[in-house]
Design brief:
Blueprint: E1 2-9, H1 13-24, E2 30-33, E3 49-51, E4 60-61, H2 62-75, E5 79-81, E6 85-89, E7 94-99, E8 102-113, E9 117-119, E10 135-137, H3 138-148, E11 155-159, H4 163-174, E12 178-184, H5 193-200, E13 207-209, E14 211-218, E15 222-229, E16 242-245, E17 248-251, E18 255-257, H6 260-264, E19 289-291, H7 302-321, E20 331-335, E21 339-343, E22 346-347, E23 352-359, E24 363-372, E25 375-385, E26 391-396, E27 404-409
Helix pairs in contact: 1-2, 1-7, 3-4, 4-5
Amino acid sequence: MIKRDIVIVGAGPAGLAAAAAAYDAGVKDILLIERDGKKGGILKQCIHPGFGLHRFGCELTGPEYAERYIREVEARGIETLTNTFVINVSKDKVVTYQNGDGIFSVQAKAVILAMGCRERPRGALNIPGTRPSGIFSAGTAQRLINIEGYMPGKSVVILGSGDIGLIMARRLTLEGAKVHAVCEIMPYSGGLTRNIEQCLNDFGIPLLLSHTVTKIHGDKRLTGVTVSKVDEQRVPIEGTEIYFDCDTLLLSVGLIPENELTEKAGVVMDRVTGGASVDAERQTSVDGIFACGNVLHVHDLVDFVSAEAELAGQSAAEYVKNSSYAKRPAVKVEAGDGIRYTVPQTVHPGDTAEIYFRFSDVSRSVTVTAYADGVEKAKKKVPRAAPGEMQKIKLTVPENCEHVRIGMSK
């Protein structure tokens, strides 16, 4: 069996950053595995600007951002297998993969999971109607336009106000399509405020909050959709129906971390994030298996993906180099009032840790406080709390600490 120090699954923004960081931390024997034909992940089709403001201090397109990390990986001579599909990751860190040359297994000293996420499909929504052509996930439509050169349709309704849906509303408009509305079942948008302004308001595209698609019309091709207002329990309100004559419906209704391999490895999962439960080094419950990027929890900015992946790469390298590496005492981080989840889920006594979190609802002028064993240790004021925008808070965890809680107050 082939043996490698570190095997990284996924050569998107997380896998690339993790590989470069692990190499710079002193581990040179790295294998990067990517199922697509090229490195770069989803960024290859994200031709809009807005990337790199935090990481590089300048505005880049997705391909430009990816290219910076691709060059870093190639400059270090890190081996990459493309068009290669990972079949299994075992608890003892055996990675099995398949490509045109056959099926192979590699024994790794450490594994970094960086598989990214996928879009939630129509089947998860239970929308009444037939199954005509003209219904796409927003990411699929993005790939069709930006990479394949095909126009999905000319008269469009978008369901879901995640960032991909907002960006595609602008992209389709620029390509000459009529975007009638972006409908969101929640009373708030799931996307970044800047995307609402730049992608909807600047183009006069209405955002219908507390609305959802309740019927799909058409036989062979979509001919229209019915949209209804929903109540506080997200149940459609009779008599509020609006019919849109359209040939295309885009679904931007959430992202799901690609964690089939994570679960096969026996890793403990977080039911809220849909990803692994990790410590501050991004190590999972299985020794030597680390996770980072959108496979761990869905990020709103790729800049944060890169920072987290570099941490995971450095941690994996330390694990490989240090034969006495052992998990340190773990302190559980609780998501308190107003907080949906935290990453990491555990921290270590005596460490200074950055804890990422998302709010449960939209609020204004809130205070986020980090407590250790009930004692306030850090505080942060947030002018506007929104679930679509990830936040972070830094605190020093006291020695002998037993419990950390992050809570919100108004």
